[in-house]
Amino acid sequence: MSSSATISDQLLFETIRHHLFTAVVGDVMDQMGLLHQFLPPAIKLCDTTWLS
User: Fold this and answer.
1) N or C end of the chain: which has fewer CB within 10 A?
2) CA distances for 11 relative to 17, 21, 25, 37, angstroms
3) What is the mean pLDDT of each run of 10 residues along the chain (52 residues)?
4) Which domain holds residue 21?
């Protein structure tokens, strides 16, 4: 793997982490036929210190 591919991958994942919302991912996966890939919204994180 070349350095430029690694840099591009890092930029891609950084962009996804900051700009792509979970709902968008869920909608795309639903359209692909990948249903039931997320927990229901009623399930919440118990320890908010895990959030970054």
Assistant:
1) C
2) 10, 17, 18, 25
3) 68 85 86 89 83 70
4) 3-38
Q: Which two tokens stand for residue 40?
A: 């229901």
C-alpha span between 24 and 44 (Å, rounded): 19
As a whole number of angstroms, the distance between CA 6 and CA 1 comes to: 7
Q: What is the DSSP string of 5-24?
A: HHHHHHHHHHHHHHH--HHH
In a domain, 9, yes or no: yes
- C-alpha 21/C-alpha 3 separation (Å) is 28
Examine residue 25 and state whether it is found in any structural domain, yes or no.
yes
DSSP state of 9: H
Q: Is residue 32 part of a domain?
A: yes
Does the residue 17 lie in any domain? Answer: yes
